[in-house]
Give the backbone structure.
Amino acid sequence: MGESPFKKKLELAAMSRRGFLRWSALAGTSAAAGKKLFGGLRKRNPVLGGGTAGQAALAVEKMVRTGCPSHNCGGRCLLRVYVRNGVVVRIDGDDRAGDSLDDPQLRACVRGRAYRRRQEHPDRLKYPLKRVGKRGEGKFERLSWDEALDEIASEFRRIKAAYGNQAFYVPYGTGSYNQLNGRQTAERLMNLFGGSLGFYNSYSWAAISAATPTVYGTAITGNQRQDWLNSRYILMWSWNPAEMRDGTNSEYFVRKAREKGARVVCIDPRLTLSAVALADEWIPIRPGTDAAMMSAMAYVMIKENLYDAAFVRTHCVGFDETQMPAGAEGAESYKDYILGTSDGVPKTPAWAEAVTGVPRETIARIGREYATTKPGILYQGYGMQRRAYGEQVVRAGCVLAAITGNVGVPGGWASGIALQAPDGGPLWTAFPTGQNPVQALIPSFLWSEAVIRGKDMGPDDGVRGVDRLATNIKCIWAVACNALVNQHSNINRTARILGDETLVEFLLVQDNFLTPTARFADIVLPACTQFETWGLEDGWKYGDEVLLMPKIVDPPFETKSDYRIAADIAGRLGLAEAYTEGRGEREWVAWILDRYRKTRFPGLPTLDEFERSNRGVYSVPVARPVVAFADFRKNPEKSPLPTPSGKIEIFSKRLHDMGKPAEIPAVPKYIQEWESPFGPEAKEFPLSAIGHHYLARVHSTMENVDWLNEAFPQRLFINPADAEPRKIRNGDAVRVFNDRGATIVPCRVTPRIMPGVVALPQGAWWTPDKDGTDRRGSVNVLTSERWTPLAFGNAQHTIMVQVEKADGR
Amino acid sequence: MVTQYAFFFDASACTGCKACQMACKDRNDLETGLLWRRVYEVVGGGWEKRAGVWVPDVVAYNVSMACNHCEKPVCAWSCPVKAIGKRDDGIVLIETARCIGCRYCEWACPYNAIRFDARTNTVSKCHFCFDALDSGEPPACVSACPLRALDFGDLAELRKRYGDNRHIFPLPDSSQADPALIIRPHKDAGRAAGRAAEVANWEEV
């Protein structure tokens, strides 16, 4: 028997112990006593270590089933919350019988299971606060609600009079996120108050939501997940459902598909948690080069005649010169690009190997496998589209799905954003926010631009609804939004912008904790958690269910729900009646439930029934999963796509007409990113850095939960090939930096990430020291505010950095 | 009648998400620093540059493990004050009130299952959620797994369902304690030893 690392570790630890003396002293203890004790253990509950909750839970005052406060992870799970003396003492999971694939249990992840450590956290905000130091200094004094509301109303009125309603902005943020809790409560009030500058898209999937419709005319490109079991081949491309939870149970469905015989291949710079458990093969790829590998796969399919020529002929446009749209007859077709007819660069596997770092024979093999093992799924994750030319990789994946004929068939997959057929899935906002009298919209990622130069912004900056913005943003009301500072790019820049009190003149933040964003507030309002008020949520991207979130415990101290806060401000603005329509939180949940009943779920119980049953969830079993584009596949003339041509647009005339071929080509291309290992910036900053999702938190929410930090500590992940030349050993504190900022964080040296790439999980709370160096591993001190060309989306994973040992710092 | 409760762990389906570990902490109210169920990340192998391209030969998988309620409870045998015993259904329990904190059981256990808490100067470990079992519920960890990679039951029954493999690298030889644990190995487990794999997350377990 070899020496076990387990044993070795234990023995080392035991060497330092002082148990030996005790042994000598107590060796005479009676053995008979022990025997008697364990005879009796069945009858009584002795103290067995740990705390008291396990056994005390037997004597809880109530157990409530509720939807997990998801905070915008991709899951929507069911929790059983146990309460004693108004305190959440235990959280258990879904216990519905059956757990069938038609209607599987909604099992919570580590974050839901740790939720009471957030709920009962000592740092919860308790009272309204007013800033007394400089912006961002984090100095506050306590304020009464009356004083706070007066000041807010007076600032709102002043700014409206001085700049107009377009100067108000309620930013994207998801720290409080269900159908009644979150920023939509503020949006409703703003709309009644005359409106505010609106936004479109998100930090999650800006590029994929813009690019998917350029191919298919719609974002509803996904089959229901039960259909994955009909697949024979699954390419998980930059897709990591186990860590991001892309729909509760998505990883479980992949497991089941694999058990049924599907081969699963994971393409990702990291050997992710998903890859470990779900994939037959892991193919590491250099970040930002996925479109090059996809192009080379197409090259192999074309050269070896493996693509579905019949489907391409009948269902697609722009594949080759025979199917170019009118007005673009001479333009470069997809085939021209792939074969290098026009640019002289055939997109061969050898070409792609140099770009992607994936061996040419692997690229060719995966191309053949995907083209011939049908039906197959090329599932696109979202990480690779939060990059410089994120639109390209989305379009490239969709085109591969199309030319392999995997669209509209059971077990196939059209790729793209894949909102669930037939109706796109959930209601993203069911609460009635009303009409915004302000027409102007900006891309969500460009708010900091609108603060410093809004008046100069027009269509070139993605502005919609107006030709030019009338004003810069002067007032921000951030509801559960740590995206303002922590999750936005280039924190040091953002901090300078928000620190300038002449730009944003009034910054109101409401949250559960004093987040890095709240530290910049002029007034901080203490919001209650989602356990402390009423709410409702539905399956996120997937899932056919509604989860009720009853009020489980009372709001502590002076905290209030997001809805109540907005209603109270409405009262100060003379809008109380218009805002509430006489409803409290519970009445609004009944109203929203009614809306679901009229749209997606006719069989929904009434709120009274739902609450009384304590079932927590209403779900619709999926026995016959819907396949997107099935009708189009059967008859493209009779059921055309909502694209200009009615077909799958491999070549997009709309993109062609934009006249920006270098950044927005009409056929999907690999474009070298603006920060890249191949650019001059790599001399100083040679490592690609990605900020992947981490189970320790949901974006930046739950960052302060001790149990999660214990389970998944914040680390920089680095390959031994990059660590060794830098004399970095596992566990060392390292300094990660580029010309935008620096952070110091312990590292994990691991072969689970490819050489040349480091990963720093996104969401850690920015914690600058006196020199401005972050001390928590907050990746956004390193990220860039530059946006993607078509979607105006965040490209936060496109960054180059250097790493060094942080001795004595 | 159950004569030996046992866990089944499917390493081939475990992502390492730690939902089991957290469900255990919550159910048993374990302070930070105290883990009854742990998820060990096993990593080995490395990278080689072939014709200018980095090629991985990496093994990686997880081992989720609590107390294995061994048929040969070496922890109980090592306890000088007989604070550890085995129920008729095979569950091994520690009566903390009798524990003197000598930590011999911790030393004896080949699986790191016994956890010392300096705050109380006692040891504790997984008790199979015996209170849940006694009221007909599954252990917290088993019902928590999003991949359905854990199961439990009578050892004889689990053997019929899943076979009798009790080993996965780097666990010690199962003959040391006869763990009541059935394991379905991960595809990488067979080559782990040859790739010098080791537990990569000692700081977390």
Remarks:
- Chain A has four domains: 53-119, 129-200+428-538+555-585, 210-424+628-658, 680-805.
- Confidence is low (pLDDT under 50) at residues 9-47 of chain A.
- The CA atoms of residues 233 and 658 of chain A lie 36 Å apart.
